[in-house]
């Protein structure tokens, strides 16, 4: 298997750094205006930014992307943002990695993919790590948020299964449709949960922080997804996706260094088990030279 070039290695690490920092950014946005309002604003800004680059992909492709938008945008991110209201960004970054477990299982159920005992062992170790995360103070005291985030990871895995069945689509068109479809649904959900009283508080938010959050999400995150697809197109997929295991490490480091998060043994043990178990899964994909990513952070 061909190693990444020095340039592509640096680009991959840059993407992982931005993805790892995104969890702290989400936490900041949620803290300012609430989960669903923050999510609605993200969809609105991103959609308007990429709308000028939209190219009609055909009705059938549009419907498939719209389904992915509903799963990935509304359900996955809605659950994750809501769960993050009570959880630390580092805990969420670790728990979201469980989407790899769901991806492999759903690949077996829906696509007939097979895996041997080593992958099964990795999945079991990762699952034990998810349970251990209940011992982390912020997670254990908010079990509903725990299940929301793990549930969001399962929906993210399902959306990746659907993405595998898509024809090739212009990345900017894909981003525009995902956010355009998600926007009205997220807005409706925010009005149902927060009401006009929640939206009336938005003008009083710290717009210096909120502007930074929206710029990070609408520009940096969108650009990294485009860059990631290009990296995948010119390198062996399994070789690139190995690096996503570093995402929670970055998120934990940022949480400790800049947000005052105190490391606990349950967090370290849970993260270690999840990353170790999923590392086995990813390494097996490298050895098998499989051509599909199993772990992409949004």
Report on the structure:
- With 298 residues, the protein is an all-alpha fold.
- The protein has one domain (6-288).
- It is 78% helix and 0% strand.
- It contains 14 helices and no strands.
- It has helices spanning 6-33, 35-50, 59-83, 89-96, 99-111, 117-132, 137-140, 143-164, 171-193, 195-200, 207-234, 237-241, 247-259, 265-288.
Percentage of residues in strands: under 5%
Number of domains: 1
Shape: globular
Which percent range fits the helix content?
over 70%
Tally of helical segments:
14
Distance between the first and last residues' Cα: 27 Å
Any idea what the radius of gyration is?
A: 18 Å
- In total, the number of strands is 0
Order of helices and strands: HHHHHHHHHHHHHH
SSE class? mainly alpha
List low-confidence stretches: 293-298
Major sheet, described briefly? none
Summary tags:
298 residues; single chain; mainly alpha; globular
Write the layout of secondary structure elements.
Elements: H1 6-33, H2 35-50, H3 59-83, H4 89-96, H5 99-111, H6 117-132, H7 137-140, H8 143-164, H9 171-193, H10 195-200, H11 207-234, H12 237-241, H13 247-259, H14 265-288
Helix pairs in contact: 1-2, 1-4, 1-11, 1-13, 2-3, 2-9, 2-11, 3-8, 3-9, 4-13, 5-8, 6-14
Briefly characterize the structure.
The protein has helices spanning 6-33, 35-50, 59-83, 89-96, 99-111, 117-132, 137-140, 143-164, 171-193, 195-200, 207-234, 237-241, 247-259, 265-288.
């Amino acid at each position: 298997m061909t190693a990444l070039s020095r340039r592509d290695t640096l680009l991959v690490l840059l993407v992982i750094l931005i993805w790892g920092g995104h969890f702290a950014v989400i936490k900041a946005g949620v803290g300012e205006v609430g989960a669903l309002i923050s999510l609605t604003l993200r969809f609105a800004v991103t959609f308007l930014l990429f709308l000028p680059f939209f190219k009609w992909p055909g009705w059938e492709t549009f419907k498939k992307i719209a389904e992915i938008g509903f799963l990935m945008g509304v359900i996955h991110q809605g659950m994750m943002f809501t769960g993050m209201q009570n959880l630390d960004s580092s805990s969420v970054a670790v728990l979201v990695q469980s989407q790899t477990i769901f991806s492999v299982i759903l690949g077996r159920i829906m696509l007939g993919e097979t895996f041997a005992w080593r992958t099964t062992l990795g999945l079991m170790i990762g699952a034990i790590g998810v349970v251990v995360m209940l011992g982390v103070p912020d997670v254990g005291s908010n079990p509903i948020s725990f299940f929301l985030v793990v549930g969001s990871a399962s929906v993210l895995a399902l959306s990746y299964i659907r993405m595998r069945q898509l024809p090739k689509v212009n990345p900017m068109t894909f981003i525009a449709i995902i956010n355009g479809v998600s926007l009205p649904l997220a807005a409706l959900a925010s009005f149902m949960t927060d009401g006009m009283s929640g939206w009336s508080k938005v003008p009083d938010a710290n717009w210096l922080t909120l502007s930074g959050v929206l710029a990070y999400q609408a520009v940096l995150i969108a650009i990294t997804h485009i860059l990631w697809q290009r990296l995948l197109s010119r390198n062996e997929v399994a070789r690139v996706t190995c690096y996503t295991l570093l995402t929670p490490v970055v998120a934990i480091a940022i949480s400790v260094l800049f947000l005052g998060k105190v490391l606990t043994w349950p967090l370290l043990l849970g993260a270690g088990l999840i990353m170790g178990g999923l590392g086995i899964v990813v390494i097996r994909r490298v050895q098998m030279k499989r051509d599909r990513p199993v772990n992409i952070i949004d």
